[in-house]
C-alpha cells in the first residue's frame, strides 16, 4: 500500500511521529493511567507540559522575555476582534494591509470597532499576475494605533518575504506560516497564529505579544478572557485551556527541535515549494497567478489551462493518495499546502503525479 | 494491575470505549488514511460527522427544532461575556442566581456589560450546612432581560433539583451536569456547557439556544463569532471549529445512546452519588456541608473531621489508583466528581477505600 500524503490547507497534516506518539500514549500519559486530556490543567504534570511547550516555542522562534507567549482559544478570527477591541480606541486609526481574503476579513472585523485605513497592497498586471506593491507607495496613516498584516495569504498563496515598514506597533497574522521560516522578533509587537496549520489541531491560537504593548491596551467592557495581560499573568489559564491541543503542540515543538528547528523547516519549505513551482512553470499546462517574488512557500493555488480537466485531476490525485488538493471554494482549481508536516517525499510524489498527468493529458 | 479510576472535576475522565476507539482510528479515520483532526471541517466526511453529532445530541436531550445547537470555542467563561453582551442592553436588568463560585463569576462578568440583580440563593445554618432558598423568597427583577442560574455548582457540590421560576428568558450554565439527568427543554431559552466534564475534551462549548431569542439579541460591536444567529446559520463554522473535540463529543454521544441514554445516566448518577453520600453520612468521620435535598450528583466535596489526615487520605488514594480527589484550592479537603464516564465500579472502589481508611484511622 502506498502512503497517503495530505496537502490540506487547514486543519492540516500533523507530523507522523507526533501522531504515532499521541496514539501510543492516548490512554496512559506520563504514567498516570489516564489520558492527558483527562487531567486538570492545574495539575503538576500538566503544568510541566504547558511550561515546557512555552519554553520550546521560545527556543524555536528565539522569543525573548520582553514577549509573553499565550495559548488561547477562539481561532485567529477571535483575534481579529480582540486586537482592535483592546488597541483601537480614542479616535485613533489602525492600518490594515490587504493582500487577500484573510487580511480583508481582519480589516473588516476591525472596522466594526474603530477607524481603519485599509491599504490595498496588491497589483494585478495585464496578464492577471498578482504582486505585492512597495510599502513606499502605500497611503500610510501618520501615527497608527498599529499596522496589521498577514504574512502569508492561505487562499491566494501570497507571502510577504519582507516585513513591511511601519511607524507604530506591528501586528502579524502568521497562521499559515509560523514556524516555517525564521523570524526577527524585534520587528514585531504582536504575532498570532491559529494552530491548525503549522502548530497542532484546530481549537488553539498562539499569541506572542510584547509586554510593552499591554500599556496601550484597554480591557474595560471586554470579555475577561480577552485581557492579554491577565492571560499572560495567569499562564493562559484564566479559564480551562484546550489542553489536548496544547499537548499536541508540545509534541510538534519537540519534533521540530529534533528536525533541526525553524532553519531546517525554512530550507525544506523552499525545496518543497520550488519543486512544485518548477513543475507549474515549465510550460503552460498548469498556471499560478502570483509573481515569483511574492509566492507563498506554504500554499500554492494552481490551475489547469484546460479547466475542464480539473475534476479528473482531483479524482486521480485522490486515487493516488494525494489528498486535500481541491482549491478553495472562492477560487476553484487546485491548491497544495506544504506545511512543515508535509515531508519532501510528499512534494516529490505530487510533482511526479502532476508530470504524469501532464504527459497523459497534455 | 488494578484499574485507575479518575475522579477529576474537569478536564475529566472520558468513557473508556470512546478513548479506545479514538486511539484505534487516530491515524486513519473513516478510511481516509489520515486523522480526523487533519482534514478540512468543510469536507464531506467531516460535515457528516458534525451533523450526526448534532442529531445525536438532539436525540439524547430531546431538543426540538425551535432550538439551535451550537458547537463553539472559548469555554463557558466566554459565554459569561457573550450572553450579556448580546442580550443585556437598553438599561434592562438581568437576574443572576448565585449559589457558588461559578454562578458568581458569571454574574460578575455580566455586571461589566450591564445591570445585574445578583440573587443570593444560599442559606447557611448554624451548623454550616448550606441549602438553596425557595425562589419565592428571592428579591426578583420585575421584567428581567433574562434569568441566569448554574444548575450544578462544581466546587460547592450543590444542585438545583428544580428549575427556578422565572418571568423572562431562562438561561442555565449546565457545564457540570449536562447529559447526566433528563431535561425539560421547554423550561429553557439558552443552555450552555463547557465540554470538559460530561461531553468531551476541554476547548469546546455547547450552546443550545431557542431561535426566538435571536430576536432579542444585538450583535453590533461584538466579535463576529459571538453572533449566535450567524453561528446557527453557518453550522457553527463561521470560523474553523475545534474539530477533534467535536469528533470526541460525537463518540461520547454514540456511547451514551448505547448505554441507554440520559435516563440511564440519571439512574447511575443517583446510584453512584448515593453510595458516596451514604459512606459520608454513616458517621462523623467524613463530612459534606450541603443539605441533602440540594446535594450534587456530579461533584461531592467532602472533608475529614480530623483534617490532619487529609494528606494521608489523598496519598493513599493515589496509591490505590483513585485519582483526582484533591479538593478545589478554594475549599481544601477532598472532592469526588462522578460524571457519566465514571463507572459504578469506580464509585464502589472509592467507597471501599473510604471505609477501609475509616477503619484504619477512625
From TrEMBL, chains A, B:
Cellular compartment(s): Cytoplasm
Principal subcellular localization: cytoplasm
EC number, UniProt record: 2.6.1.52
Class of this enzyme: transferase
InterPro entries according to UniProt: Aminotrans_V_dom, Aminotrans_V_PyrdxlP_BS, Pser_aminoTfrase, PyrdxlP-dep_Trfase, PyrdxlP-dep_Trfase_major, PyrdxlP-dep_Trfase_small
Ranges where the Aminotransferase class V domain occurs: 5-350
Pathway: Amino-acid biosynthesis; L-serine biosynthesis; L-serine from 3-phospho-D-glycerate: step 2/3; Cofactor biosynthesis; pyridoxine 5'-phosphate biosynthesis; pyridoxine 5'-phosphate from D-erythrose 4-phosphate: step 3/5
SUPFAM superfamilies: PLP-dependent transferases
Reactions mediated catalytically: O-phospho-L-serine + 2-oxoglutarate = 3-phosphooxypyruvate + L-glutamate; 4-(phosphooxy)-L-threonine + 2-oxoglutarate = (R)-3-hydroxy-2-oxo-4-phosphooxybutanoate + L-glutamate
Residue numbers of N6-(pyridoxal phosphate)lysine PTMs: 197
Binding positions (pyridoxal 5'-phosphate): 76-77, 102, 154, 173, 196, 239-240
Gene Ontology cellular-component annotations: cytoplasm
Alphabetical keyword list: Amino-acid biosynthesis, Aminotransferase, Cytoplasm, Pyridoxal phosphate, Pyridoxine biosynthesis, Serine biosynthesis, Transferase
Residues the entry annotates as binding L-glutamate: 42
Cofactor(s) it depends on: pyridoxal 5'-phosphate
Cofactor note: Binds 1 pyridoxal phosphate per subunit.
Keyword Methyltransferase attributed: no
Quaternary context: Homodimer.
Protein role: Catalyzes the reversible conversion of 3-phosphohydroxypyruvate to phosphoserine and of 3-hydroxy-2-oxo-4-phosphonooxybutanoate to phosphohydroxythreonine.
HAMAP family: SerC_aminotrans_5
Name of the molecule in the record: Phosphoserine aminotransferase
Native source organism of the sequence: Aliikangiella coralliicola
Phylogenetic lineage: Bacteria, Pseudomonadati, Pseudomonadota, Gammaproteobacteria, Oceanospirillales
Amino acid at each position: 500500500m502506498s502512503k497517503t500524503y495530505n496537502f490540506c490547507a487547514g486543519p492540516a497534516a500533523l507530523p507522523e511521529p507526533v501522531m504515532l506518539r499521541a496514539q501510543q500514549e492516548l490512554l496512559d500519559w506520563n504514567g498516570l493511567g489516564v489520558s492527558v486530556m483527562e487531567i486538570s490543567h492545574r495539575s503538576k504534570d500538566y503544568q510541566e507540559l504547558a511550561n515546557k511547550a512555552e519554553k520550546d516555542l521560545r527556543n524555536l522562534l528565539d522569543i525573548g522575555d520582553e514577549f509573553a507567549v499565550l495559548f488561547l482559544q477562539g481561532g485567529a478570527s477571535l483575534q481579529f476582534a480582540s486586537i482592535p477591541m483592546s488597541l483601537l480606541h480614542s479616535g485613533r486609526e489602525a492600518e490594515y494591509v490587504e493582500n487577500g481574503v484573510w487580511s480583508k476579513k481582519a480589516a473588516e472585523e476591525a472596522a466594526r470597532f474603530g477607524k481603519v485605513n485599509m491599504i490595498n497592497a496588491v497589483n494585478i498586471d495585464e496578464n492577471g499576475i498578482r504582486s505585492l506593491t512597495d510599502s513606499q507607495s502605500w497611503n500610510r496613516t501618520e501615527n497608527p494605533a498599529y499596522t496589521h498584516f498577514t504574512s502569508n495569504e492561505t487562499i491566494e498563496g501570497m507571502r510577504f518575504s519582507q516585513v513591511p515598514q511601519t511607524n507604530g506597533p506591528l501586528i502579524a497574522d502568521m497562521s499559515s506560516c509560523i514556524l516555517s521560516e525564521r523570524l526577527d522578533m524585534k520587528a514585531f509587537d504582536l504575532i498570532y497564529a491559529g494552530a491548525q496549520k503549522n502548530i497542532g489541531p484546530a481549537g488553539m491560537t498562539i499569541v506572542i505579544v510584547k509586554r510593552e504593548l499591554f500599556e496601550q491596551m484597554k480591557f474595560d467592557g471586554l470579555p475577561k478572557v480577552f485581557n492579554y495581560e491577565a492571560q499572560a499573568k495567569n499562564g493562559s489559564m484564566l479559564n480551562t485551556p484546550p489542553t489536548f491541543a496544547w499537548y499536541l503542540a508540545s509534541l510538534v515543538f519537540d519534533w521540530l527541535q529534533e528536525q533541526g528547528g525553524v532553519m531546517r523547516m525554512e530550507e525544506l519549505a523552499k525545496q518543497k515549494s520550488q519543486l512544485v513551482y518548477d513543475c507549474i512553470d515549465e510550460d503552460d499546462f498548469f498556471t499560478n497567478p502570483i509573481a515569483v517574488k511574492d509566492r507563498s512557500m506554504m500554499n500554492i493555488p494552481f490551475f489547469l489551462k484546460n479547466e475542464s480537466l480539473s475534476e479528473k485531476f482531483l479524482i486521480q490525485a485522490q486515487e493516488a493518495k494525494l489528498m486535500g488538493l481541491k482549491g478553495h471554494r472562492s477560487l476553484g482549481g487546485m491548491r497544495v499546502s506544504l506545511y512543515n508536516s508535509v515531508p519532501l517525499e510528499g512534494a516529490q510524489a505530487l510533482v511526479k503525479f502532476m508530470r504524469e498527468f501532464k504527459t497523459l493529458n497534455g
